[in-house]
What does this fold into?
Amino acid sequence: MSSRVTKEGAALAVAGNLISLSEVNITNLYINQPGPLPLTGYFTSSGGALIIFVSGSGRVQSASGGAVSMTVTLDGSSTPLGSCEVTTNLNNSHSAMIPVCFFVAASGQNGQHTITLTANNSTVTDFNDWFNVTIVEAVPS
It folds into this structure.
């Protein structure tokens, strides 16, 4: 489920300077979306700078625990934005990954884009795991 909110005539203060924005778009791509991974969602951009907030959960099937992690990719790029992860000492117990946010510079490429969440290595996800992705876009005047 995706929802979008637009605020027109916004302003942003950066290092004491006021930057005028024509609008700020907020898209909730996933709100408590059950797994499993991979998940791919679509959103529309006006070509502005993006701040992408991501969180989720997963588990490892190892007697000694290990890293629970997922990769976040924009538009199918071979270079991911990064990952969310946490280390656990528990076997087969669902753990929340540390939420992260990614900054993507303004590209000028308006239109439809994709975000894909993919489980890494020994991470297992299922319907007991939940995922959130929110995109904030700053569109300069």
Remarks:
- DSSP finds no helices and twelve strands in the chain.
